[in-house]
Design a protein that fits this description.
With about 325 residues, this protein is of the alpha/beta class. The chain contains ten helices and ten strands. It has a five-stranded mixed beta sheet with strand order 2-1-3-10-4.
């Protein structure tokens, strides 16, 4: 029964296995760099803890396991092997960049940001692999809290104190319009000018609340013509003149998936600008892998901001 109190120690198991594998207490002591008396005492303590005799006593038989010892020897070896693997894996997580990184990404950002970030990270650290999970903000926060993901690429919206956030880039809002729309050639457009136009609303929890909140803060009510939950569908509907939509991170193509042209126009005036960044559980220490991933993310943002005409909101 497991009651939170260890009945035996790893040293005791090591002494037992070494005595069986190397022919007695003296050889085990030499192998483990311990005094023979320490090995003998450890074995006696282990036998008392387990309630069985592990080694056969007698001249020339110090390394011979008893019937009970033979039954338990493989299990003892398995416990020691698992301990070694645990120590090795822990060292890798702290000092090395290898293994699998469980990454979450906001569903609207994932197609734009996740592929280049993951590819550069895996190229730089060939021993590492990214396991990507997408979701809305609430799903990502739950995954951070239960440990199913280590870090999340998302916005700084709707996060509580138990989630730490590392900013990477501002993501100012913009209007996505059909190429031939009267506002499409403007350097900026106001929410007041958009309010009367038909809005194709991206009806996802974080997106919906943020975009409608922009109008509410400005004392305006948008004309919601359609509600969709797929970003590419919203872009295609806009391209076919069903209205406009709002976004933050900007895909590079200035067209919908069906090839119809689109135009992006920044929202003018004083509006809330979210930030794209990395979210982690506030109570979880960084590993070398999560630090390396954050460095790659920051590097891509710097490259994007330095490129002519680049939009830092879409690293």
């Amino acid at each position: 029964m497991i009651d939170g109190t260890a009945r035996f120690t790893l040293r005791q198991l090591s002494c037992f296995v070494a005595a069986c594998d190397h022919g007695g207490l003296g050889a085990a002591a030499e192998r483990l760099h311990l005094a023979q008396a320490t090995v003998s005492a450890s074995l006696a303590d282990l036998e008392r803890a387990l309630g069985v005799q592990l080694l056969v006593r007698g001249p020339g038989r110090a390394g011979t396991p008893s019937p009970a010892g033979r039954e338990l020897l493989d299990d003892a070896r398995a416990v020691l092997a698992a301990t070694t693997r645990l120590e090795q894996r822990s060292s890798e997580l702290v000092a090395g960049v290898s293994g699998r990184l469980a990454l979450g990404c906001l569903v609207t950002l994932a197609p734009i940001i996740a592929p280049p970030v993951c590819r550069l990270f895996e190229q730089r650290w060939p021993g590492a692999t990214v396991d990507l999970q997408t979701g809305d903000q609430a799903e990502l926060v739950v995954a951070l809290r239960n440990g199913s993901i280590s870090v999340a690429l998302t916005y700084d919206l709707g996060l509580e104190d138990d989630v730490a956030f590392e900013p990477l880039a501002h993501a100012p809002p913009y209007a996505l319009l059909p190429r031939g729309h009267a506002l499409a050639e403007r350097t900026h457009v106001t929410l007041a000018e958009l309010a009367a136009e038909p809005l194709v609303l991206l009806d996802l929890p974080l997106s919906r609340d943020y975009f409608l909140g922009l109008f509410q803060t400005a004392g305006l009510t948008p004309t919601v013509a359609r509600r969709v939950t797929d970003l590419e569908l919203a872009r295609s509907l806009v391209a076919r003149d069903y209205g406009y939509t709002l976004g933050n991170a900007r895909p590079a193509p200035k067209q919908a998936v069906d090839g119809a042209p689109l135009a992006t126009v920044p929202i003018g005036g004083s509006v809330e600008t979210p930030v794209i960044g990395l979210a982690r559980s506030a109570g979880l220490r960084d590993t070398r892998m999560t630090v390396a991933f954050a460095e790659v993310c920051a590097e891509l943002v710097l490259v994007a901001s330095a490129a002519p005409g680049a939009d830092v909101s879409a690293p």
